[in-house]
Amino acid sequence: MIHSVLIFNKKCQPRLVKFYTPVDLPKQKLLLEQVYELISQRNTDFQSSFLVTPPSLLDTGNNTSNTNNNIDDDGAIQIIYKNYATLYFTFIVDEQESELAILDLIQTFVESLDRCFTEVNELDLIFNWQTLESILEEIIQGGMVIETDISKIVGSVDDLNKASETSANTLSSGISGALQAFAQGGFAQWATGQ
Amino acid sequence: MTSLYAPSADDVIQRLRPFGFFFEKSLKDLIRGIRSHNDTPEQLELFLEGQLSECRQEANSSNMEMKTNAILKLTYLEMYGYDMSWCNFHILEVMSSNKLQQKRVGYLAASQSFHKDADVLMLATNLLKKDLKYGGSNDVFKVGIALSGLSTIVTPELAKDIVDDLFLMLNSSKPYIRKKTVTALYKVFLEYPEALQSNFDNFTSKLEDPDKSVVSATISVVCELSKKNPAPFIKLSPLLYEILIDINDNWIIIRLLKLFTNLSKIEPKLKGRLLPKIVELMDSTNAASVLYESVNCIISGNMLDENDYDVAFQCLEILNRFCNSQDSNLRYISCVLFYKIGKINSNFISQYDELIMKLISDIDISIRLKAIELIEGIVSEDNLKTIVSTLVKQFVGDEVAIIETNRGTSKEIPIVISDNYKIKIVNVILNICGMDNYSNVDNFDWYNAVLYDLAIVSLDLNEDDLGTKIGNQLRNLMIRVPDMRHTTIVNIIKITSLDSVEVRLPTILESCIWSLGEYATYLENGDALIKLFIKKGLHMPHSTQDAVIIAVVKLFSSWCTRNSDQIDYIKDILEQMVDFLTQLNFSKSFEVQEMSIQMSEILKLTLEALEEQSDEIPLLLSDVLPSFFNTYELTPISLGTQKQLPKGIDFDIDLPFLSQEDLDNILDDQETLAEEDMDIYDSDRFSLVSDDKNYGHEASYEDGSSDESETDHFNDTYKDFDEEKYNEERKKETLSNPFYLDEPTGDGNHYKFSDILSTDNEQREKSLNAMEIIKVNDNSHGSQKINDKKKKKKKTKKVKVLADQTIVIPGVTEVDASSKNNKSQSLPNPISSKKISLRMHTKLEDFNFDEQNKNNSDEDQALEHLRSKFEEQDINNDNPNTSNEDEVIVIKKKKKKKKSKSKEDGTSKKKKKERKSKEGSLEATPQL
């Protein structure tokens, strides 16, 4: 499963920190800093998207209670990242996720963002953190990938936003049909209206 | 809820609102604030603290909008490390809002902060149950939000309470809800596996859902569940196989391959059906990710036997292609798989040496890091030097990566070689050179030079482990390669006297110093080394001091016998040594203390003797001291030999080791040898000394007695009195020419000497047999005398390398050796990595799904156990008797299992068809 999604910029300022496995806040911060430290040493022009997790990073957490699993060398945690302009999109996953599939997923995520914001840049994501959260929520739920189809992802975010807005305006009455009507292309308006 | 803080303030806000006054900041304002206060961390922290206290007040407000806004900001601030669990009850309030917008904020906040707060989760249970029900038409989204939030906060209690509501949702008409429910159920099953047991069919029916997203989500969940506990999902294999054949969505195919990997690990029979299909998939697909996962599935799913050369090469060809691609990601992951294939059978990858050589010079260091782990699989005598020189060159670190930019020009980027990587290189070089007792090294001069280079490099790496390892290699060379000792010892001296080595790589010294002491006879100017060690010794770590103390005495003893004419100088050195050792008498380390006291006392005696007699070196110095160290040669002994020692050997302490007659003989001997010295010697002291010596024999008889060298020891002893005709000659040998003194002219003597020893062998064995303490097994080559071995080896190889000796004691099984051999054939495991706290132990892992047929599952386990045991023996194939015995048991068990299976067939009609096909396959496979 996916344990965590981290988005941060080249100055290690967090843009999104999402943990699907409970991790204490100080450790979250430490993890972010260490991942940043490792990634910033790399040259994305020619280096792969996979971080070789050094022991220092792995020691930040408690050692697992079931040590018998440790013998399996494929039980390792992988850190997979992609660099887009000023931002790093980092996924921390276990061995049940395919490395290449996660890279595709990051691409899907970014394309979905691009579709929502049209020409997405860091500034968009800074000021629309909640949008970032809701798009991610439609892709990953509790560490599992639930949707990989970009139009479906954007569609459900739009639907949800329409529903939220209407429920806010009309104070929750029967608005069944209206929802479906808003389903198409409503997102962009909502996003810019924020 | 009324606010705890000044209600009047709230009233004021309410009053001002209509006029357009907003006191609270929106999230946007907060973010703007963060950006404008971002100059220093202190400034930012100050600002955030201020914002937090505002949020705290706002969260207490009775105004729902304000509260929601505050919660949203707090959720955002958690990203900066500010805990928000204090406002969990406020979050709960926001969650229960009727407005969807507020509910969203509430659930988002809850998913981040509820997981450790059991109290608030108890309160949230009812709310969740309510939110999971369809009420109005808008509820699709409400339910969706609740499901998303639920997925990260499930606790065992909550799981139990909520599971029925979730199963209702599973039949929702909306695919959106179904896929979210399936995913939410994953966490519930982890905490409450009983739910999966009782609703297994209901849940797995979603694999056949008409909506692809739901199928995909279900496969993902089954895949994750099967990682934790694969057994219950084996029976889904036919259905999953059908999906694999029909589907054309790469994402789902990849998940299925992962799932089959998990299942195949515990059910080897799957291989028969799956492998052809996967191979077919590999031929037909164009997607790199599917190709990669297919190979991964074959390898990780244990579908590749060590003899499946065809499949292995098909996989390797794909990996080869990936490794040569421009995409660094493909190169990286292929390296990892290469390694795994190599682990199955290192012959698979041995022909890819060129590729691997290319990969260890890849522009991406992380790929090199993976590739150097492969080297062990391809190394041979022919390419060892090339590999090592390639690696050593990388230490220089002036490589550049040439990157083609968009405009067609290229730029150079220096490749940064991290210390981490250098440490790895040193380790790998040591490993590949030392493999199989140096079988790949044909030139030990070269290897000495490499070790020297590695030592120099390691000076800057600040990794203690490397020093120890290089030191061990040097010591090993000294012991195992007798012909090269002259070169090696020079190398060791060079390394020991490196500038500031005791500060920058102190761990290398222990083995080096030990070697210098042990092989002091190769050194001319031991006095210089003694002085060096005395100078530096006091500031060394305790473990090294240990080695220094003994080494200094050994050096001294050997140096004195060579320079016996410089009495005054000897005295001078001796005084310095006594002085040095006395200082160590008060060391904090117990070992150092004990050792230094022992040695300083002996040396004090020697000094006394030297002072009494000033024209010749005393017997204590010329004979007694060397006899401490030179009585027998050290040989490498295989790991675990000591463990095989029989415990509690009986022996008679009172029985004198030497009879009075023997003792007299020896004394006579000594007299004739020492000649005129005897007069000066106090006869009391002399007898005391020889008593000591005998006691030494007896002591070693007591504690070791299976050590090869100990038997030598016996041998010596026996010769001393049993074979008097050799006695004199032998004595002279030992006195004038210490046992292992390797002089150019000494070779002849050596051989003669070894002849004597080998004739002794039978004698010794007889006497030993008679004593019934130790029997040296003639069958094992390891237990032959070193000298015999030397003779044999000399004929075949120019430079001989002593192998580990194994000593076989009757009645003690030789388990260690066989398992060790196995290991050395395949690649060793990489350094097992500790996991981050992300991995949690869940109830599911230990949950037994077959509780009602407990006997059956027990039998399954027993079968599994036997199967693995049998396989193990099949590989070892060393003891036909025991494996035969096991075979009988296995067959018996299998029959039992079949019977119970057919019984089961009768009871559950539903699965009859499936079972039948399974049974068919069972019958098709021959009896293991």
TrEMBL record, chain A:
Main location: membrane
Domain AP complex mu/sigma subunit residue range list: 1-163
PROSITE patterns: CLAT_ADAPTOR_S
InterPro entries: AP_complex_ssu, AP_mu_sigma_su, Clathrin_sm-chain_CS, Longin-like_dom_sf
Keywords, ordered alphabetically: Membrane, Protein transport, Transport
GO biological process, one term: vesicle-mediated transport
Compartments, record wording: Endomembrane system
Entry GO terms, CC: endomembrane system; membrane coat
Pfam families: Clat_adaptor_s
Protein name, as recorded: AP complex subunit sigma
Organism, scientific name: Maudiozyma saulgeensis
UniProtKB/TrEMBL annotation, chain B:
Comp. bias intervals (Polar residues): 816-835
Major localization listed first in the record, in broad terms: membrane
Domain spans labelled Clathrin/coatomer adaptor adaptin-like N-terminal: 52-605
InterPro entries, alphabetized: AP3_complex_dsu, ARM-like, ARM-type_fold, Clathrin/coatomer_adapt-like_N
Transmembrane in keyword set: no
Ranges of Basic residues composition bias in the record: 891-901
Subcellular location, record wording: Cytoplasmic vesicle, Clathrin-coated vesicle membrane; Golgi apparatus
GO biological process: Golgi to vacuole transport; protein targeting to vacuole
UniProt cross-references to Gene3D superfamilies, sorted A to Z: Leucine-rich Repeat Variant
GO terms under cellular component: AP-3 adaptor complex; clathrin-coated vesicle membrane; endosome membrane; Golgi apparatus
Residue spans of biased composition, Basic and acidic residues class: 723-734, 842-872
Region of interest called Disordered, as start-end residue ranges on this chain: 696-715, 723-743, 812-928
Sorted UniProt keywords: Cytoplasmic vesicle, Golgi apparatus, Membrane, Protein transport, Repeat, Transport
Description of how the protein assembles with itself and partners: Adaptor protein complex 3 (AP-3) is a heterotetramer.
Function: Part of the AP-3 complex, an adaptor-related complex which is not clathrin-associated. The complex is associated with the Golgi region as well as more peripheral structures. It facilitates the budding of vesicles from the Golgi membrane.
Protein family: Belongs to the adaptor complexes large subunit family.
Full protein name: AP-3 complex subunit delta
UniProt organism field: Maudiozyma saulgeensis
